[in-house]
Amino acid sequence: MNSEKSLKGLKREDFIENLSYDSVIFGFNGEQLKILILEYHNTGLFALPGGFVRRDESLDNAVNRGLHERTGLDHIYLEQFHTFGSLKRSDSEAMKRILAGNGFDLNTHEWMLDRFISVAYYALINYDEVHPEPDTFSDSINWYAVDELPPLMMDHKKIVDKALEVLRSNLEKKLVGMNLLPSKFTMKQLQKVYESILGEDLRRTTFQRRLLGMNILDRHEKLFQGKAHKAPYLYSFKSMDTIKSKEEVLIQK
Fold first, then answer.
1. Count of CB atoms within 10 A of residue 52's CB?
2. Whose CA is closest to 77, among 240, 224, 252?
3. Beta-strand (E) ranges in 90-177?
4. How far apart are CA 3 and CA 134, in angstroms?
5. pLDDT tops 90 at residue 207
6. Domain boundary among 141, 169, 197
7. Which residue would you say has higher pLDDT here, 213 or 107?
8. Range of the domain at 212
């Protein structure tokens, strides 16, 4: 439950009351799965990027707007994965610290101290394309490895844990790796993504055999960086339309 870029003019009547969103933004730096985390001005509080929903926009548009403001990216892969509505999740004292630490009038923004139900999304983005931007309330936004997160406010650690659980279950069903890798990648890079998400090492030969057997990859030219005989092939994910059309042919047969 964070802020927008223009909170100086934020008015209660412009937003749907008691509804917020939080985003778990995943990126892969080639070695580790990471998450974008905000730190609020003058508070020492860390949180997931999030925000409120305006009355004249859809929930998805609100989330996309917030992600664009924090990453500069459009057309991000988004998955709505859970709604958090525990009676204990809101923390008015933390929000008071955030408002006071940024010089906001508590009476004017009293509505932000109320209980909020949060709809959670996870996003998968290309780590190298992101230039993280803090919002009005925060003085920094940085990448943290999933196993090296700072203490998060409210129930944001639970939100991260749930996002990881859903991401793992969706790993092959929705080909989420394509959103964390460049358009062409080596089998080693793909295996690294799987291992970083699953939190475990995978046997190379078994992994390669299984992925190739799924018929979801196109093989391209070799990546020549060192010795020619050791150059690995580059791969890309087939389009979902191609995969579906082949599945329909097999069903018809």
1. 24
2. 240
3. 117-125, 138-145
4. 10
5. yes
6. 169
7. 213
8. 181-252
CA pair distance 211, 252, nearest whole angstrom: 24
Residue 239 has pLDDT above 60, yes or no: yes
* Percent of the chain whose pLDDT exceeds 70: 87
Tokens of 26: 């995943």
Nearest CA-CA partner of 16 in 61, 80, 64, 67: 61
- For residues 159 and 124, membership in a common domain is answered with yes
Q: Tokens in use for 56?
A: 């004249």
pLDDT value for 224:
67
The reply to whether 2 falls in a domain is no
Helices 187-198 and 204-213: angle between axes, nearest 10 degrees: 100
Do the beta carbons of residue 166 and residue 82 sit within 8 Å? yes
Same domain, 111 and 216: no
User: Rounded distance, CA 41 to CA 139, Å?
Assistant: 5
Distance CA 149, CA 108 (A): 33
Contact of 220 with 211, CB cutoff 8 Å:
no
The residue type found at 42 is N
> Residues 6 or more apart from 124 whose CB is under 8 A from it?
26, 27, 76, 77, 176, 179, 180
User: Do 133 and 93 contact (CB within 8 A), yes or no?
Assistant: no
Let me know the angle formed at the C-alpha of 83 by 128 and 54, rounded to the nearest 5 degrees.
75
Q: Looking at the structure, do residues 126 and 240 belong to the same domain, yes or no?
A: no
Query: How many Cβ atoms are within 10 Å of 131's Cβ, its own excluded?
Result: 8
pLDDT in tens, 55-81: 999 999 999 999 998 888 888 889 999
Q: What is the mean pLDDT of residues 6-26?
A: 83
Domains in the chain, number: 2
Q: What is the mean pLDDT of the chain?
A: 85
